[in-house]
Amino acid sequence: MSDPRITSSIFTRGAVDLSALRGTAPASSRPSTPTQSGPPAGVPGGPATASGGAVIEVTEATFQAEVLERSLSTPVVVDFWAEWCEPCKQLSPVLERLAAEGDGSWVLAKVDVDANPRIAQMFRVQGIPMVYAVVGGQPVDAFSGVVPEAQLRQWLSAVLKAGGVAVAEPEDPRLDEADDALMSGDLDAAEQAYRKILAESPADAAAEAGLAQVGVARRVAGADPQAALTAAHGNPDDVEAQLLAADVEVLSGLAEQAYQRLVGLVRRTAGDDREKVRQHLVSLFTIAGPDDPAVASARRALASALF
């Protein structure tokens, strides 16, 4: 489940054996209160204001109740940190804020490695910050170091899904900014914003679609839509005319018609022209996304035309 854009999974080094930590909590132990030690909320390294125990301190004595047993019903994210760790002071406040936003869907368990070396040893912590996800009493994923918040949110969503928690896709302010630029016609700003998102999250389908829309908007800029369609109708083997007509059709809400136009052109061309048409068609698919039925149908038609 690890996102390779964050780091390779720590579990490539072998399974984590937590048996030595089971049964260490006294029978009278109770879930601890939200973290309140250290710097005040809002100060780097200090706890976020969290309700309902979203952020808790964990020790060797409370590990079984707070992490293992709790994870049977609620995903637990374990944050290994230390007072002297400067990167921890960047990552921990973000985790604490996201835990508060989670409203009980997951719990952040903070472990001071200096005070709890046995837990750190069991998890094979070799450097901090180190973050583990525990679901169903077992670690399921981990990453080390400081990661961008956008990637951290993606990782947490995957953890929650692994724990059977329904996850609503969060709104991304970066996409809102890029979409606003596209809608206002500022194509340079839109392209820059979409490329920035893709640099941070290479598989972001919405950003890929937005960037493809920028390309279409640039290609049709200054063109007369009706004239473009008329020219394509009169010159069925003119590659440039057909590509422009397909772009016009996509922007006019006639994407399926555009796909059919270009699949037919693939059948009638060869060599560099055929490859150019294929790539153009695939870029148009990106705008709609792979789940669009028209895209699925057109992909099958394209495969038939190519092979």
What labels describe this entry?
50% helix, 5-stranded mixed β-sheet, alpha/beta, 307 residues, 12 helices
Description:
By secondary structure, the chain is an alpha/beta fold. The chain contains twelve helices and five strands. Strands 1-3-2-4-5 form a five-stranded mixed sheet, sandwiched between helices. Helix 9 runs parallel beside helix 11 (271-288). It is elongated and about 80 Å long. The two termini are 35 Å apart.
Helix content: 40-55%
Show unreliable segments: 1-16, 23-52
Give the DSSP E fraction (strand runs of 2 or more residues).
5-15%
Number of strands: 5
Helix-strand string: EHEHEHEEHHHHHHHHH
Biggest sheet statistics: 5 strands, mixed
Q: Please tell me what the overall shape is.
A: elongated
